[in-house]
Structure prediction request, 838 residues.
Amino acid sequence: MTIKIGLFGLGTVGSGLLTLLAEQNNKIKASTGLDFTVKTALVSTLTKDRPGLDPAIQLTTDPNDILNDPEIDLVVEVAGGTGSAKGWIKSALSSKKPVITANKDLIATAGQELIELANKAQVPLLYEAAVAGGIPIITTLQNYYRTDTIRSLAGIVNGTTNYMLTQMAQNGLSYEKALKQAQELGFAEADPTNDVAGYDAAYKAIILARLVFGLESTLDELAITGIQEITDDDIAAVKVLGGQLKLLFTINQVGEDSIALSVSPQVILPDSPLSQVHNENNAIVVNSDNLGQTMYYGPGAGARPTAQAVLADILLAATATKESHQVFSSENMRLAEPNVQAYCWILNSKTHESIESAVHELDDELNGYIVRQGSHENSNNGSQLVLYTKEITTANHDRLLKELTQKRTLNKEFVIYPC
Amino acid sequence: MTIKIGLFGLGTVGSGLLTLLAEQNNKIKASTGLDFTVKTALVSTLTKDRPGLDPAIQLTTDPNDILNDPEIDLVVEVAGGTGSAKGWIKSALSSKKPVITANKDLIATAGQELIELANKAQVPLLYEAAVAGGIPIITTLQNYYRTDTIRSLAGIVNGTTNYMLTQMAQNGLSYEKALKQAQELGFAEADPTNDVAGYDAAYKAIILARLVFGLESTLDELAITGIQEITDDDIAAVKVLGGQLKLLFTINQVGEDSIALSVSPQVILPDSPLSQVHNENNAIVVNSDNLGQTMYYGPGAGARPTAQAVLADILLAATATKESHQVFSSENMRLAEPNVQAYCWILNSKTHESIESAVHELDDELNGYIVRQGSHENSNNGSQLVLYTKEITTANHDRLLKELTQKRTLNKEFVIYPC
Prediction:
């Protein structure tokens, strides 16, 4: 049986999909009896030279050539953006065509509307490629965890920033140099804001929080910190006790109907399963009642892993029943503050003497709150004191901080990371 | 719609399944409309006291009360063993009842026969719980990787030995003490041979190699080394360069139609994603064309994770189509030797002087083969020299070893691990 695909977008991922289809089609045919072929592809311009493109694929600039073609069984959207793409997907779902999309921004911002439409039409809307394409996290959450109860998720889902932070920590690169290298390798775009400011990771977290907890949230509701303010000294300081800075998303159930969701640089300690997630790799940790801690690790960037996620979804859509979005909790959740959190405090001092006196001044206030500490010479011949707190409430943390920053020696020389 | 289950075995996993069903049934009912209930359970004795057991569950010692009951929709086998269980499963499949089993030994030794029977009967035979129950590796391989080409798998799939090796390395426990502790925690059985000799890990590797490469293999065809010979000094020595000893299975495609499969203690270096897999946890690394390296991590022991794998399979069987075993390559593979391998050599010497001279004697032969080295004082006031080789062929390794062991200073004081 031949399955004809209408493809919106023939950029990096779209072209990658054609490569993978050519490589895998015989095997897929042998094991499933299905023969996948791209009939029509929407492109922005017909005049561009596309060496190696199968001439049997019809190129068009008119979306209706896909949407109104009754021969097309299935629609793949890898054009991106939240404008036209939304209309194409709605139109395809309305005409009962299954849709596979890699469009993270669209699923994050309009996913609920599209999922409802898909469920109403009883056709699959699959988006594995939208979150950590190299990791089958969406399918695994939908299938394996529907008999379990998830309490929290956390992880590294932005390959660009993880690459930069790894290069800064392991090879001593400056922020600028690390960014330039990421751009040269194709991990970062010319305008890197989406990645370095944490928006890309936040979109992925929004998608996961909806899938697992039924939480609807928007970018401006969330606490998002990027990696732009991280200094070389911060990176050196957290190394003192074996830690690393990583841009992490965290989604925690903090009450019967409350979810805390954040994106920020956090300290990963050496005994964390996330401590070996380097460079452009991604990983997601899931905590659940039946399994405890599980982790899924894979590549976080690249056309091939993303195209693989799209292709796996294509096969799933063609072989699966009408199964679509799965919300785990029986009622939808609301957004909440985290309840308790451990922190890594970095105290910078110009001389070794003042850091020593700071330690002494701190002793009384911090008694009982600090679980590990170390000190370290920073790049300006000054000292850094690194303190790890217990898990404390935000209120308690604010109170301690207020007391501490009133002391002269600590003024303006205080860096804080959750950990 | 009510789905009635016939349960073979009411031990740890069977009881765990009843607990999970009680906890999750409302949620499953809400999201799928399916109401799962255990109608009949086969037990070895009816007189045993079973506090808390739902009185609605019929207990029996006659398997025909399950197999011949037309009301039973689905059979779960968690009794274990390769004797009676095989007959029950064959009988259930023949009467078109889907079967879910946690029986690793049976699937490893008779899986192909049972899978063929299931495919012929067009009913699912699912066995997620048989390999690393806390990790959805079977389902993920069957679904996500059928559009990819896997080249190798490796990992830690025996929680008992990983717990023991972690305790020996991190807390300085002796082998005997670590084993005793594992037994007290319920990770190891009274007779720990299956775990410590590597047979349990080998059975799991056999199952994975069949699933991914269509390789049929038996325990006596494989190179299996357990952890019984590992000494405290070995563990201390590999620590010199940050390494750890773990019991690993490896499955490598080494030619068009050849697969190398082994189980042995190997050195895991600090930059490996497996380096943070401690205590009873498991992890499986997959290398494939589209994704590169991916890893799946989760708990490797315990009734709850195993019962979760069984329950997830139950839901899959009840909602899925007749989909069953998926072989990835178009033709079945044969067993092969590994082609190249890196090694960690530990040279023990009674005095510091002799180890130094050994290094000098080694220089000529090893020139170009050694990539890292370090030395270390062992527990008997002697010295250990630790060398890591490049990836070399078995033949080359044998030749080098032969030359080296002819030297007086190295005689009988040589420990080798793949890494």
In short: Residues 146-299+332-336 of chain B form a domain with the Dihydrodipicolinate Reductase; domain 2 fold (CATH 3.30.360.10). Chain B has a mean pLDDT of 88. The CA atoms of residues 154 and 378 of chain B lie 31 Å apart. Chain B has three domains: 2-126, 146-299+332-336, 340-418.
